[in-house]
Amino acid sequence: MSSTPPPPPRENKGDIGLGRDLSNTRGQRLLNADGTFNVRREGLSWTQGGSLYHDALTVTWGRFLGWTALAYVGINLLFAAVYLLLGNDGLSGASADRSGGLFWRAFFFSVQTFAMIGYGTIVANGIAGNLVVTVEALVGLMAQALITGLLFARFARPTMTLQFSTVSVIAPFNGGTALMFRIANRRRNDLIELEAQVTVTMRDTDIGGGGRRYYPLPLDRRAVSFLPTT
Question: Can you give the pTM of this predicted structure?
Fold first, then answer.
């Protein structure tokens, strides 16, 4: 009984994973100035190419707080509209005139129910109104737990901030010539078990279309146990 031998490993050919299309682009950066890849994905819907949880963890704080405020107002607007559909007798207590009108009374009652404030100045009447209150209370519990979890995850997610020297130099080193630059830890924490890889990319006129080739550079020190400063 014979078995098919595994296929031989594919030759890397100097490609570090940026792809042939990106490697052959002219006049464009391979990486953006902030270190992100200069890649644009097309042909995928948001549900296929996106992740709401990942986006909530990685977006800026301003955008995250904006999303949270938008969801908070949107949910309360939705339930306020439902309370309005119950009619003028769906809610009782504080008069609509003192609350700014029927809509605002329903909106403020939704906020009180969603946040479980329970002032008691506005109450729901009938089975339908109390069923809506029950549903909104459950939605409020789940929404607050979700937002709290995302906030904790954003604060607890380990991050590091490295500062690269703005200028690199080419200078004599050990009887030859070396490219030198400096990396520093901007945080007050201590980074351990760091490894570095440096790759230089340049145009190769021998390749059709003048594609890029990638060359890993040998490092004098490619790993350190601790990086408290530089």
Answer: 0.63
